[in-house]
Amino acid sequence: MSELKIKPLADRVIIKPQEAQEKTASGIIIPDSAKEKPQKGIVVAAGPGTKDDKMEVKVGDVVLYGKYSGTEITIDGKDYLIMKQSDILAIV
To answer: Domains in the chain and their CATH numbers?
Structure first.
């Protein structure tokens, strides 16, 4: 994993979403317009937390998050999500 040039503040994390599925289990190719928005990704950066909320996630954790959680950002041509730790549903 490459070092990001951005560091999230407080209880925010930066997540690299997993790619959406290209094919169904039966081999049908899914067009871009019909792909589901991914809800699983890898934490690539995490803030230090706050005095009230310690960080539960760390860099490298695979997490599940809400379908419409976070803000999409592009860093060095790659797409990421930045969101509060409370938007993360589970660590896989």
So the answer is: 12-91 (2.30.33.40)
